Amino acid sequence: MKDMLKGQVAIVTGGSSGMGEATAKLYASEGAVVVIGDVQVNKAQKVAEEITAAGGTARVYGPMDVSKKEQIQAVVEATLNEFGKIDILATYAGKTFDGEDMPEEELLDKTLDVNLTGTYNTVFAVVPHMKERKSGKIIICSSNGAFNPTTPAYAYHMAKGACESLTVNLAMDVAPLGIRVNCIKPGPIVTPFWDELMEAGDERTKMMENIGKIEIPMGRVGNPEDVAGVALFFASELSSYVTGLCMYVAGGMGYVYSHGQSFLLGSMRKE
């Protein structure tokens, strides 16, 4: 199919890399105007330039740190001022602070500010406009680890679990208004997210290969395009009768129990 999103306007947070970048590029290739919201403006602008070079339309209105409500609002207002509408919101902005040298209380606050409160504030910055138009698609990004953890990451997984609750509650509320809200639960996906946890190199490559072989029924880790395809499904009319769904995009993880899950074989079992 072609031009599945023709004439629509999409905001993609965390759109400068990884799953957000892949989704922004796929949306643009299907005819959407894409607004890239990201704290890394230079990287976001580079993605926008690549979209433009490929014949699409993209905008970067400045930094969008989702832990700062005023920056969220500024991007939403700039989008409405230029294009007059927002049809799609895909929220990928997220970060784990596990492993960083900071007090536990600070780690918790930062993790929730970005992954939970940031998602909440982004969603509710666009909901009033979508309610007014009685139309819209919201795609929220959670994590397979929220309810199917392979390693303990308490604050991050707690925040992502709350995003799934937000998905279901909001979906039921706005369904009569023609707004659909769905959630993607990625499994292990090869993105710069892993740079926060482990330095890139042969050791990490081997670890990812082992995760695929041992823990994932389909036998491989995912890539950003695997997630982007599902984000397109949720944004398009292919999912016109789907709302409130939290979908695993994890090669079978979550739906299918894996006897080799590292969480079950790791430190928790040794206690």
Structure description:
The relative contact order is 0.14. The protein has nine helices and seven strands; from the N terminus they run βαβαβαβαβαβααβαα. Strands 3-2-1-4-5-6-7 form a seven-stranded parallel sheet, with helices on both faces. The protein is 46% helix and 13% strand. The chain starts with 8 loop residues before the first strand and ends with a helix. Helix 1 runs parallel beside helix 2. Helix 4 links the parallel strand 4 (88-91) and strand 5 (136-141). It has helices at residues 18-29, 41-53, 69-83, 104-133, 154-174, 202-215, 224-235, 262-265, 267-270, and strands at residues 9-13, 33-37, 57-59, 88-91, 136-141, 179-186, 246-249. The chain has one domain (9-200, 222-257): Rossmann fold, CATH 3.40.50. Residues 263-271 have low confidence and may be disordered. By secondary structure, the chain is an alpha/beta fold.
